[in-house]
Amino acid sequence: KYAIDRFENNLAILENLATKEIIEVDITKLPSNIHEGSILIENNGNYNKDLSTEKARRQLILAKFNKLKKK
After folding, report:
1. Are strands 39-43 and 2-8 parallel, antiparallel or unpaired?
2. Alpha-helical segments (H) within 1-71
3. Whose CA is closest to 51, among 59, 21, 28?
4. Exposure check for the chain: N or C terminus, fewer CB within 10 A?
5. Residue 7: closest CA among 35, 29, 33, 32
6. Do β-strands 2-8 and 22-26 pair in parallel, antiparallel, or remain unpaired?
C-alpha cells in the first residue's frame, strides 16, 4: 500500500506505508480521482484506491490532532 505524498509535474510521489520507501509514478498510471493523502494498492503495476484504509488513516490522524488540541 502506498500513500500519495505529493505531485511534481506529471509524477506522483508515493510512500510505501510498510517500508517508507519513496517511489515516483507517472500520474497517467494512477486512478483519476486521487489527491495528496490518497491510499493506493499496487497489483502488477496497476494502482487502485483503497478507500477503507484511507478513511481509517484520516480518522486516526484527526483523533491524534484533537488529542493534541486538548493539551
Report:
1. antiparallel
2. 51-70
3. 59
4. C
5. 35
6. unpaired
Q: Which residues contact 39 (CB under 8 A, 6 or more apart)?
A: 1, 2, 3, 4, 17, 49, 50, 51, 53, 54, 57
Which residue reads 509535474 in cell numbers?
9
Quick one: cell of 45? 503495476
Per residue in 1-22, pLDDT (tens digit) is 999 999 999 999 999 999 999 9
Residue at 28: amino acid letter: T
User: Residue 60 is placed in which grid cell?
Assistant: 486516526
The whole-model pTM stands at: 0.80
> What is the spatial distance between Cα 40 and Cα 66, in angstroms, rounded to a whole number?
26
Tell me whether residue 10 is exposed, middle or buried, using C-beta atoms within 10 angstroms of its C-beta: 0 to 12, 13 to 18, 19 or more. Answer: exposed
For residues 17 and 57, the answer to whether their CB atoms sit within 8 Å is no
